Amino acid sequence: MKSIRGFLVIVLLAIVTLANFAAALRGYLGSMDEAERLFNQRMLQQVDLLNYTFPQWREQTSARADVLLFPARTSDAEASLEFQWVTQDGKLLARSAAMPEQVVVPLVEGFRFVNFHHYRWHVLVAPSADQKSWFIVAERADQRYRLAESMILQAVYPMVLAIPIIGLIIWWVLGVGLKPVTNLARELRQREATDLRSLDQQDMPAELVQLAQSANDLLRRLDASFAREKRFSGDAAHELRTPIAALKIHCENLLHELQPEPASVIKLKQGIERMSYLVEQILLLNRTAPDHFMGTFEAVNLTQLAKQAIVEQSDTLELKHHHIEFNGDECWVSGDRAALASLLNNLLGNAIKYTPDGGRIAINTWLRGRDVVLEVMDNGPGIPDGERERVFDRFYRLGGDRHNSKTPGCGLGLSIVRQVVDLHAAHIALTQSRYGQGLLVMVTFVASAVTDADAKKANHNKSLDHKAATNETNN
């Protein structure tokens, strides 16, 4: 059953049709009985008419010895009455042309059926008023039934033709009756993933109250679950970062105390740095999950955010002697500033990691109609066509955990990028770099209309970020 409304329409229409059929059948049978009675009454009236006319007319023409013959009136379009006038001893006195020259039935009073002239006839035998002769009145059975059915079906046809109209009325009424279900579904569909408010049960039909209560219970459990997960993320960030920071400090002190630096301590430092990076990526992956994301969307200057990402990683770019280019338009998108910054940092960080020293990197933001296209391009080793979907899987790295580039990583960067892309209903594609080798990452967003207030807010955020970076440098 794919549609409750369709199921109810079919069932109710079937019930109405069955009831109409039963009523029509009963009406048909009752009407046929009534028509039979009326036709028989007409035959009796015909006998009365013959009684009134024929005896006197026969006395006036008593000198005639032949049988009186009257023109035939039977046709396929109507049920005509035919007759024979017979004496007590069975001599035929008169007949209509459609009747045979012999007496068709025994002279016994009553109704009966008889066959002649290739038809079945309904016959009435009745004595004359003076009891000296008999009248035989006959009517073709097929014409009799056809006439009866034509009258009855005139009353049945409207009932049959009304069934489609009744079906449409049922469909409309059910649509009105199920409108609260449609409204409830629309309300749930239009809610954001972070909107876990209980459903309003005021003015809700009694049939939906139980469903709404179950949904509210589920929403409360989800809210509690997300709250626990948020607390866990905060606690984990604190509990994991603190000991890792302490390990880093002790490792640095150990390296200063031991000269020359032991290889094992250097490996220990690299392991601690990799563990720190992995913890940060896992926490970031959890914070940017679309189902758990608790951020607020706003108009974000993607071009300014890309420039900021370049500035933040300028030291690494200089260390590896990379040549970086930036081109594009002033582009705004609707999204979460922190999540978009994470996306840019991961894409630029990957390009820096896997591009050899002295390589080329480009970041572009283009406005294409109603779309904003972000491009991050390098001339590194690139990603083979068959691996471009797998790299979005968590913890997956080309060449295994120990990458050929000897670059530390955990395989979560592009997973975070995909989650941010999904969070913003954007599209990401990995293609061949225009440098001839390397990777080109294209992320397509829906452009956002920017207002003066958005621009002022973006400039304010930029100032705050600059101050924070300055204070961090001074510290």
UniProtKB/TrEMBL annotation:
One of this protein's Pfam families, by short name? Answer: HATPase_c
- Where located? Membrane
Domain Histidine kinase, by residue range, is 235-449
In its UniProt record, a GO molecular function of this protein is: protein histidine kinase activity
Q: Which residues cross the membrane?
A: 6-29, 155-174
EC code: 2.7.13.3
Reactions it catalyzes:
ATP + protein L-histidine = ADP + protein N-phospho-L-histidine
* Topology class, membrane: Multi-pass membrane protein
Q: Which UniProt keywords apply?
A: ATP-binding, Kinase, Membrane, Nucleotide-binding, Phosphoprotein, Transferase, Transmembrane, Transmembrane helix, Two-component regulatory system
Give, as one word, the top-level EC class.
transferase
SUPFAM superfamilies given for it? Answer: ATPase domain of HSP90 chaperone/DNA topoisomerase II/histidine kinase, Homodimeric domain of signal transducing histidine kinase
> What residue stretches are annotated with the HAMP domain?
175-227
PROSITE patterns on file = HAMP, HIS_KIN
What's this protein's name? histidine kinase
Organism lineage: Bacteria, Pseudomonadati, Pseudomonadota, Gammaproteobacteria, Cellvibrionales
